[in-house]
Amino acid sequence: ATEGPFDASANSGSSPEVIRKRLVHHAINRGWRENSMILGSFLREYGKELKDDEVEQLDFICQQEDGELYDWLTRKKEAPAHLRGSVMDRLQEHAFSNRVSKAPTELH
């Protein structure tokens, strides 16, 4: 897992479009199907409206280990401070509201 405060420089040199495509790949190819369903349906529903900084935050969140990520998304455990914020809040609300369905095949 990636630790420490969110740092957009981890994506330096990557255009927002490249990061968005990577997000779709991460959402579809998770080790845990449950995370694929949560992240995939979140991207399908909200992906177009995410601002560039939110896309970078979501990319950082998606780089976390599946077991921990699932616990955070489903609020079984509190997310670490460096992952908390508006994007994690929206992901948790999305997971909690049972709007989970299939993973997306594209984001544009």
Blueprint of the fold:
Elements (H helix, E strand, L loop, with lengths): L15 H13 L4 H14 L5 H11 L3 H8 L12 H11 L12
Helix pairs in contact: 1-2, 1-3
Task: Describe the structure using short key phrases.
108 residues; mainly alpha; 5 helices; disordered N terminus; disordered C terminus
What would you say about this model in short?
This protein has 108 residues and is mainly alpha-helical. Helices cover 53% and strands 0% of the residues. The chain has five helices and no strands.
Verbal overview:
The protein has helices at 16-28, 33-46, 52-62, 66-73, 86-96. With 108 residues, the protein is mainly alpha-helical. The longest helix has 14 residues, at 33-46. The protein is globular. The N and C termini lie far apart (28 Å).
Q: Report strand %.
A: under 5%
Average pLDDT for all residues: 82
- The portion of residues assigned to helices is 40-55%
Helix/strand/pairing category: mainly alpha
Tally the beta strands. 0
Residue windows where pLDDT falls under 50 for at least 5 positions = 1-9, 101-108
How far is it from the N-terminal to the C-terminal residue, by CA?
Answer: 28 Å
Gyration radius from CA atoms, angstroms: 12 Å
Helix count, DSSP H or I runs of 4 or more residues: 5
Please state the overall shape, judged from the principal axes of the Cα atoms: globular
User: Major β-sheet, in short?
Assistant: none
Written as H for each helix and E for each strand, in order along the chain, the element string is: HHHHH
